[in-house]
Design a protein that fits this description.
The complex is a heterodimer. Chain A is built from 19 helices and eleven strands. By secondary structure, chain A is mainly alpha-helical. In chain A, the strands form five sheets. A two-stranded antiparallel ribbon of chain A has the order 2-6. In chain A, strands 3-4 form a two-stranded antiparallel sheet. A two-stranded antiparallel ribbon of chain A has the order 5-9. The longest helix of chain A is centred in the N-terminal third of the chain and has 26 residues. The N and C termini of chain A lie far apart (87 Å). By secondary structure, chain B is mainly beta. Chain B has 15 helices and 53 strands. In chain B, the strands form twelve sheets. Chain B has a 22-stranded antiparallel barrel. Chain B is globular and about 110 Å long. The chains are: A mainly alpha, B mainly beta. Chains A and B meet through α1, α2, β1, α3 and α4 of A and β26, β27, β31, β35 and β36 of B.
Chain lengths: 456, 1062
């Protein structure tokens, strides 16, 4: 009996178990739980990562614009702001900026993942163009985001001290276990330059859609970075390279001043489209342009009516975003006008007054009512520089560049400025070269990595 | 074994014998459970005195034809009557059902085996057919409310669900596993007709549920459907009911401000210049209310002040709720019809049911119909070989054409209170939607489509239908090579598909608005980028699931003392769910024509309202779950006194990857119980049954949302700006991800007093959920601020008490059932807590993990009520403060108060039933204690900006001294959102939740057999059932029903029904 039982049960158990033998079981269980989840491996995956518009073209830091001297807020509106935005606006020492750090390093992670995909692929001959474009795009994004991180979390670039001044962590892989260490300012800028230079050699001159990085975008970014580093001839070189491919300027006479958003997204001046993370403070109803700045636009200057609209008695909000919206998510990508201004400034600093004024006038003639513009003249290169910097501020309103410019111009007594705000009867002063031009590194980062905190 | 062989020999010889003697009937009587012959059974030919008694081998022979049928009776067994049709001419096997002598034996089902409650160690709760059918509902699950121990129903909008013994997870699902017969039900459980249900078993502790392994962490509800029985004569059962439900009580809603006060606020704001930016806004043309339009006309000199006052005062008397009540809502009517046939011969049995439900909804135009068909057949091919087959089919159709609450858009989320749907003559009126009325009046200069929104017209034009079909096929083979061993193979296949169709004809606002927005005007020519015509949105989803199980069961008694029962098996399951949605423009429902559109170009929106591409509403999903599992479960009973049980299960799936599948230890449980009353030394006549039990073990919980691999996730629709597909890197890979594990200790006592005067059980349990999936912060410099780890812990403990009392047990009967549960949970480890404690105050309805606290903790800003200017006062670092932006960003617990939990720790039901002759009345009274809730309160910011009113406006601080009577802050301009945030989530808006509710009343009259012409109706009953008649007592003094959060409470309903058997 017992024999019979054991035999039967052995047969049954065997046949049951063989139904789900472990070999077939493994294959069965290897199926993906969700088709949308992908182990990144193909060029298509790298493309999809780099085409993440909301990541790489949107959400750039707005804190610089909240802190600059181009605008003021009413007491009433200021009091409704949450404490984080209030702190940014009055340069509070205790202001923290964790979100921008996380966001910009998230972009770098995604760029690194795309780069790692490219590096694993030996492109076939028909894939080589795509491969170059993708690798170039990933390098561009890594360099461009590191540039933004350096403007917020590292001290302003100073050639003499750059090697000894702490920079920001440089992440070159997607490995989360790699230790996080602070590089020097010099190493940080070298990395930005390396990434953008490599990108420029790989990227195509024209991309479609425009949101994808292109060769002129990489050249333009290099020009921006070299300007910050006071490397004026290199800045001129890359501005040249950029403008050789794309130098189209919009004639503002063709635009309708009555439009609530006169400039379209992806307009012909845009080299690389990017916008900041929108915030109500910078929206058309709450942001009031500094009255001195507003008065500096003369009646025939079309920018006065294309950039600004009334938002109170004697108050004007900004509607001139190159992204065509007025909610506060303003354009802060790269456009041709900025590159003309970079080249003009650098020519002036290199004592080439005529070339400098030529670039300035080429730009401004498109900004004035037809036939009314009288070209700028200057007695010497310094005079030209003063005029160019004044026009630079007027042209690039709310592109977050004003704050980055203050960081670099404050070392020059001619352009150094103490910003003053009066809110609720209290006066806030922000002197040049203040340590608050650099943000604290997020506490969580310090806690995990033990890297050195900024002095603010 | 020998006995069976002996039996077989006898049976074959008997067959030969009976062929020889034509005039006699012979057969054998066996027990239905043990299949062993029963001696001493009386077999009597009906209507005569002719009878015989079975012998030792259960055999009998009776000489005479049983024309009128047979009556088979024996002490300790249920008397069986067989009709002559059921009696085979020569030889018959009769199965007799045993009546339990001591306690009524309760059979519970785990989905893998049926066992008796008495012989188990685990915590089971059985809902029998009678109790289950006490309430009248269309669905199965809601019938469990108030009759199932420890089951909690959350009805707060957004967190609805059922919870067995609190919660044991933070991020995974909290729903119990629902098993129908043997396999988890993957489709919509509402497909199942409650009339097809025989009983329900709830598996609460580790020993009961761990057979379900990685899916058992939230408890298991096993639904057992009706089956025919061998040797049962055909029965026809009919049940029908009609339920009428009240209209929702929209006047209950606290989120409403009367027209007159609302208008005064608008005038106040207008004078402050609040509307100036909206009135001059040409970028989005936001909605402006009629009163503000009038005020603007006065300012512009277009209307005189006198005329304006007259017009405005005329509006003060309107109340939009009257229009909602009159035109939108109606009394829902629910009809239910169910017909069940069942029966069986000695070789096969069957159960066939047909059901039809027809329910109208709370809003005009809502209708749902369900047709269900269910059939289960079992065949005995051989004495020891049974084939089981089953099919259940459900077809649902619904119309969703009720008018939803109007969201005016353009920044407003509620309609202004003086809105009207009709004029005095009943003609549909327009209300503001999306844009300012003045703009839509003139924008198109006659070239655009009508751009107005008329609620009543929209209601008539709605054309939303949905269909859902679900079919489940079951097949099983049960082979018993010998008595102690059983081999089973079970297969189930389920397919379900859903189609939702929303047709917006060219007359609907949705179509007209979209077409107008995407129109471009050049001179007198309009170019329609969205073609004229209707818009059709379609959604289709498919679900298919397969499961195959092989199982061996062995049960044997050794030496009359040792009962051993073991099952072991393996199972493979796959569930795949796919869906697709799409939109068609220019669709004509009569001709089935449509137009193509350009989804790529970003078009300027009409009137400089921005630019956008045409929405495509297209998307696809495809999700696959696969499981392979091995399990075993065994119990050993010694001398009917001591029971030991153990269970183990190992699951592998495609969710977590290789490590979890290979390294993971099986989930297991062990338990023991002791039937003290069966001990020889036990002599307590008042307490004839006493059992103690204890179990310990692990269950698992699954979250499909996380992957162990480093993946990128593709978005379902292309970027709105570039029209390209795009992806994002997900959480960093964590190859060690695995199931969540819930350890549970359960101790219980079951008892029964003499004659069952009082019987019941008391249970105590502790739960410890470890390895809970949670998001852990990592260095944000890595690019991922967090990763998923098995790192959070939650504990729980509680008590379930169930008491049944027979207070009177004569002609007049009074029975009561008391259910009482205590449960409390605490998060013991969670590393992703926010350092900004000021962000924690909220409504507390969803899980908010904070170490050391209840997951549903209700946290408030400490409040010092109002100061003498009507400002709410809080605390900052322990000092009274009105610095709201600092308070709402505080990092200190000192500035906050933990009021308690929003989930009642003490809850239960009291269910008395009186019966006399055929009448029976019962009422279910539920109670909940020890919890808190936050009432919805006034936000001036929301009132000004979104038209969101609140009844508390009438109680606001208006003059010094009011702070002694009210906690509602003064109205200040401009509204300070931090001040609102502080007040709304301060202690001032917290109330105690405790309540006692009359959940339902059932009145039933059961008649004996009724003769009607040639038909006999047996056990016909008529019933009236009132659901949710009302709250008997509540702790809050403001008439709020805390069980529904800030939403409208459930309405009362009354049902009338009839049940009969043919």
């Amino acid at each position: 009996m017992a024999l019979f039982l054991s035999k039967i049960s052995r047969i049954t158990i065997f046949s049951l178990l063989s139904l789900f033998s472990m070999a077939s079981c493994k294959k069965f269980l290897d199926a993906k739980p969700d088709k949308k989840l992908v182990l990144p491996s193909t060029l298509q995956d790298a493309q999809a990562l780099l085409d993440n518009y909301s990541l790489f073209n949107e959400g750039y830091p707005s804190v610089a614009a909240q802190s600059d001297d181009d605008f003021y807020l009413t007491d009433i509106y200021f009091n409704t702001l949450n404490i984080r935005n209030q702190n940014y606006h009055v340069w509070a020492k205790e202001a923290t900026n964790d979100a921008d750090w996380s966001r910009l390093y998230q972009n770098i992670l995604n760029a690194n993942v795309a780069l790692e995909i490219c590096e694993k692929i030996q492109p076939a001959s028909n894939e080589i163009n795509d491969w170059n474009r993708l690798k170039g795009g990933a390098l561009f994004y890594r360099g461009y985001n590191l540039y933004h991180i350096a403007q917020l979390f590292a001290k302003p670039y100073n050639k003499a001290t750059a090697a000894a001044t702490p920079g920001v962590p440089i992440k070159l892989t997607s490995n989360i276990n790699e230790p996080v260490v602070r590089s020097s300012v010099e190493a940080t800028y070298n990395q930005i330059i390396n990434d953008l230079t490599d990108a420029a050699s790989l990227l195509p001159s024209i991309t479609s859609p425009l949101s994808r990085p292109s060769k002129p975008a990489a050249f333009a970014a290099l020009a921006k970075v070299y300007l910050i580093m006071d490397e004026y001839s290199l800045a001129v070189k890359f501005a040249d390279s950029c403008l050789n491919i794309n130098n189209s300027l919009i004639d503002y006479n063709t635009l309708n001043v009555a439009n609530t958003a006169p400039f379209g997204r992806f307009n012909t001046e845009v080299i690389f489209p990017a916008v900041i993370l929108g915030t109500g403070m910078l929206g058309v109803t709450n942001w009031h342009v500094d009255s001195v700045l507003y008065r500096s636009y003369t009646a025939n200057d079309l920018r006065r009516s294309l950039y600004f609209q009334s938002n109170g008695v004697g108050m004007y909000g900004f509607k001139g975003s190159y992204d065509g919206i007025t909610t506060g998510a303003h354009f802060n990508g790269i456009a041709v006008d900025e590159i003309y201004l970079i080249r003009a400034e650098c020519y002036a600093r290199l004592n080439n007054k005529d070339a400098a004024l030529s670039d300035l006038n080429t730009l401004l003639v498109k900004r004035w009512k037809t036939g009314t513009f009288i070209p700028y003249t200057a007695v010497n290169p310094d005079d030209a520089l003063i005029k160019i910097l004044s026009e630079r501020r007027k042209e690039l309103v709310l592109r977050t560049l004003r704050w980055y410019d203050l960081r670099r111009l404050n070392t020059d007594p001619r352009f150094a400025k103490t910003i003053i705000r009066k809110l609720n009867g209290q006066v806030y002063q922000f002197p040049p070269e203040d340590s608050r031009y650099t943000f604290y590194i997020p506490i969580t980062v310090i806690a995990f990595s033990g890297i050195e905190q900024n002095n603010r | 074994m020998n006995r069976i062989y002996f039996l077989l020999i006898i049976i074959t010889s008997c067959v030969q014998l009976s062929i020889a003697q034509n005039n006699t009937l012979s057969g054998v009587v066996v027990s239905v459970t043990t299949k062993l012959p029963v001696e001493g059974v009386t077999i009597q030919i009906k209507g005569t005195t002719q009878k015989t008694v079975t012998g030792k081998d259960g055999l009998f022979t009776i000489s005479a034809q049983p024309i009128a049928g047979l009556v088979i009776s024996h002490i300790g067994y249920k008397t069986l009557q067989l009709k002559s049709d059921d009696i085979k001419p020569l030889y018959i096997i009769i199965e007799l059902e045993q009546i339990s002598v001591t306690m009524q034996e309760v059979t519970v089902s785990t989905g893998y085996q049926e066992t008796t409650k008495e012989s188990s160690t685990g915590s089971f709760d059985k809902i029998d057919n009678k109790l289950f059918n006490r309430s009248v509902t269309t669905d199965v699950i809601s019938r469990l409310e108030g009759i199932t121990s420890s089951l909690y129903f959350s009805k707060v909008s957004g967190t609805q669900g059922i919870f067995i013994r609190g919660i044991s997870t933070i991020r995974a699902g909290t729903s119990p596993l629902i098993v129908v017969d043997n396999f988890p039900y993957e489709g919509d459980i509402n497909n199942i007709n409650p009339n097809d249900i025989e009983s329900i078993t709830v598996l609460k502790d580790a020993a009961a549920a761990s057979i379900w392994g990685a899916k058992a962490g939230n408890g298991v509800i096993v639904i057992t459907t009706k089956k025919g029985k061998y040797g049962q004569k055909q029965q026809l059962h009919f049940n029908s009911s009609i339920t009428i439900q009240q209209k929702p009580d929209i006047f209950y809603d606290r989120n409403f401000l009367n027209a007159s006060d609302f208008i005064d606020v608008e005038k106040f704001l207008f004078d402050k210049g609040f509307y100036n930016s909206n009135l001059s806004n040409t970028a989005s043309r936001p909605v402006v209310s009629p009163v503000v339009e009038i005020l603007a006309k006065v300012r512009a000199g277009l209307v005189t002040q006198v005329d304006a006052d007259r017009q405005i005062n005329a509006l003060r008397k309107f109340d939009v709720r009257n229009d909602y009540e009159k035109y939108v809502y109606n009394e829902a009517v629910k009809q239910q019809y169910a017909l069940n046939f069942s029966g069986g011969s000695s070789l096969m049995n069957y159960q066939v049911s047909i059901g039809y439900d027809n329910n109208t909804g709370d809003r005009n135009g809502e209708l749902s119909e369900r047709f269900t068909f269910y059939a289960a057949n079992n065949y005995k091919l051989l004495r020891n070989l049974e084939i089981q087959s089953g099919i259940s089919y459900s077809n649902n159709k619904s119309l969703d054409n009720g008018l939803a609450d109007i969201n005016p858009g353009g920044g407003k989320s509620f309609l202004y209170p003086y809105a009207r749907f009709t004029d005095d003559n009943g003609n549909p009126l327009t209300v503001e939607k999306d844009y300012r009325m003045g703009y839509v009046d003139t924008a198109g200069a006659g070239l655009l489509l009508d751009w107005k929104y008329r609620p009543l017209d929209e209601m008539k034009l709605r054309d939303n239908t949905a269909g859902l079909q679900d079919i489940v096929l079951k097949l099983g083979i049960k082979y018993q090579p010998f008595k102690a061993l059983q081999v089973e193979i079970k297969y189930q296949s389920e397919k379900s598909n859903q189609d939702t169709r929303s047709y917006y004809s060219s007359k609907t606002y949705l179509s007209r608005n979209l077409i107008n927005r995407y129109s471009q005007r050049t001179g007198g020519i309009i170019k329609n980028n969205i073609p004229l015509g209707g818009i059709l949105d379609s959604y289709h989803s498919d679900l298919s699931s397969y499961a195959l199980r092989g199982q061996l069961s062995y049960s044997q008694t050794f030496s009359k003392l040792h009962d051993v029962s073991v099952i072991a098996g393996s199972e493979i399951r796959e569930t795949q769910a796919t869906s697709q949605r799409s939109r068609t423009y220019g669709y004509n429902d009569n001709l089935l024509t449509f137009s193509n559109v350009d989804y790529i170009t970003s078009f300027p929106l009409f009137g400089n309202l921005g630019s956008a591409a045409i929405p495509s509403n297209t998307g696809f999903t495809d999700v696959l779950d696969r499981f392979v599992s091995f399990y075993a479960n065994g119990s050993w009973t010694y001398g009917k006194k001591y029971i030991l049980s153990a269970s183990a299960r190992k699951d592998a799936s495609n969710l977590f990857g290789v490590n979890a599948n290979h390294k993971g230890t099986p989930l297991w449980s062990a338990g023991g119980s002791w039937i003290i009353s069966n001990e020889s030394f036990y002599h307590v006549p008042v307490l004839p049954f006493l059992k103690a039990r204890i179990t310990w073990g692990y269950n698992g919980n699954v979250n499909n949302g996380f992957s162990a691999l480093s993946t990128i996730l593709y978005y379902s629709s292309p970027s709105a700006i570039t029209n390209l597909p795009y992806a994002l890197t997900g959480y960093p890979s964590n190859p060690d991800l695995r199931w969540e594990k819930i350890r549970m200790l359960n101790m219980g006592i079951d008892f029964s007093l003499k004659n069952d005067i009082i019987s019941g059980s008391i249970e105590y349990y502790r739960k410890n959920g470890t390895d809970l999936l949670s998001v852990e912060p990592i260095d944000p410099t890595t690019g991922s601020g967090s990763m998923i780890k098995n790192a959070a812990n939650i504990t729980g403990k509680g008590m379930d008490i169930k008491l049944n009392c027979k207070i009177f047990d004569g002609k007049f009967k009074l029975n009561t059932q008391l259910l009482f549960s205590y449960v409390t949970n605490k998060v013991t480890r969670y590393l992703n807590a926010s350092s900004i404690k000021g962000s924690l105050p909220g409504y507390g309805y969803s899980i908010n993990p904070i170490e050391g606290m209840d997951p549903y903790a209700l946290i408030s800003y400490r409040s010092a009520m109002l100061d003498s200017s009507g400002n709410p006062v809080g605390y900052l670092s322990g000092i009274r403060s009105t610095n709201y932006s600092a308070i709402t960003n505080t990092t200190s617990w000192d500035d906050l108060v933990v009021n308690g939990t929003t989930r009642p720790p003490y809850y239960g039901n009291f269910l008395p039933t009186f019966s006399w002759k055929g009448f029976s009345i019962s009422a279910n009274i539920s109670f909940k204690f020890g919890y808190y809730f936050r009432k919805s309160s006034l936000s001036y910011y929301a009132l000004f900006n979104s038209w969101a009113g609140n009844i508390d406006f009438e109680k606001r601080w208006q003059k010094p001294g009011d702070e002694n009577y009210t906690t509602v802050p003064s109205m200040v301009y401009p509204a300070n959102s931090n001040r609102e945030q502080f007040y709304q989530f301060s202690e001032a808006t917290v109330e105690k939740g405790d309540l006692v509710r009359l959940q339902d009343i059932n009145f039933t009259y059961t008649a004996g057999t009724i003769k009607f012409k040639n038909y006999r109706l047996q056990a016909t009953s008529l019933y009236i059932y009132a659901n949710n008649p009302g709250i008997i007592w509540r702790a809050n003094k403001q008439g709020i029903d805390p069980d529904y959060g800030t939403h409208l409470p459930g309405q009362s309903a009354i049902s009338f029904g009839v049940k009969t058997n043919f």
